Amino acid sequence: GSTLHAAASEKGRYFGTAIAAGRMNDATYMGIVDREFGMITAENEMKMDATEPNRGQFSYTNGDRIVNDALGKGKKVRGHTLAWHAQQPGWMQSMSGSALRQALLNHVTQVATHYKGKIYAWDVVNEAFADDGRGSRRDSNLQRTGNDWIEAAFRAARAADPGAKLCYNDYGTDSINPKSTAVYDMVRDFKARGVPIDCVGFQSHFGTTIPSDYRANLQRFADLGVDVQITELDIEQGSNQANAYRQVVEACLAVSRCTGITVWGVRDTDSWRTGKNPLLFDGNGNKKAAYTSTLNALNAG
Ligand code: G3I
Q1: Which residues are responsible for catalysis (predicted)?
Q2: How would residue 301 be classed by pLDDT, with cut points 50, 70 and 90?
């Protein structure tokens, strides 16, 4: 394949990017998106604050713009995200208890229903585990509604859009560590009890290197009977960047249930990681060495 998604497709995978609705009129940007990527994630436009700015009042303009543009061009969409401790609308931030639980499940139901049939996979729940080295749940207003809030969200999402794959998505779970093991235990428990979960997303926001047990970690999750996906990849620029991108592709291709890779932005100047130049295209939209190594790794073997 001569583009990222074409090469990935030949390996039975997708290659995607996050995009921002506010950049869709930038011809250089959209030219790269249209040419290189087959899976689209809205960087912010489908989050809770964007889709339900006032309680019970839903706003889909920017999310629809991204989703309909992608589908119209034959691309697929990862939905991001139905439930998260961050980027909650103000009205939700101040809620708690059963009222919050009800508001959360209504949000999941409404948004998943609006996009029913259009989403390849939803990040149903994002970043629900803590970074305390003990594998604890992250404290949040959602967690304080009861430990079962995650499975309640997954059940509501399945009921609303039975055709979408339902994922749990997190960062810092890319290697084998207490946090990823806590997620692993949750997924194993969900599978054992019939809680609907189809995939786990590994955000993969990396420094200059990738964990040595990255592939092994993806494989242990796949062995639970879920797909695994690399959902928000970016790698800090340094002398190792091209090599690190190659290693990420090789890890995914080595795990048969690793269904695809999404990078978290197009050009370095589009990245949330200011000054780190962590993406595949430079600020002018030119292909970087990391692009070439990624494409070559997808085409190898
Ligand atoms: O849209 C407003 C704009 O109206 C305002 O003028 C401007 C001034 O601050 O802010 C704009 O909103 C910003 C938004 O990005 C759009 O640019 C928010 O302040 C800013 O907080 C927001 O950052 C996003 C961040 O999630 C928020 O948590 C990043 O773009 C986005 O890349 C990042 O993505 C997350 C994933 O969802 C989950 N995993 C981690 C990843 C990186 O943090």
Answers
A1: 232
A2: confident
Has residue 179 got a pLDDT over 90? yes
Q: Is 240 in the pocket of ligand 1 (CB under 6 A)?
A: no
CA of 22 to the centre of ligand 1 (A): 12
Contact 23, 62 (CB under 8 A): no
Q: Is 17 exposed, middle or buried (0-12, 13-18, 19+ CB in 10 A)?
A: buried
61 within 8 A of 46, measured Cβ to Cβ = no
First-last CA distance in the chain:
13
ipTM of predicted assembly, 2 dp: 0.94
Q: Is the CB of 87 under 6 A from ligand 1?
A: yes
Give residue 56's identity as a one-letter amino acid code: G
Would you say the CB of residue 234 lies under 6 angstroms from ligand 1? Answer: no
- Known catalytic residues are 232
20-79: pLDDT as tens digits: 999 999 999 999 999 999 999 999 999 999 999 999 999 999 999 999 999 999 999 999
The reported pTM is 0.98
Distance 44 CA to ligand 1 centre (A): 6
What does the alpha-carbon distance between residue 90 and residue 177 come to, in Å, rounded to a whole number?
A: 34
Can you tell me the mean pLDDT for 172-195?
98
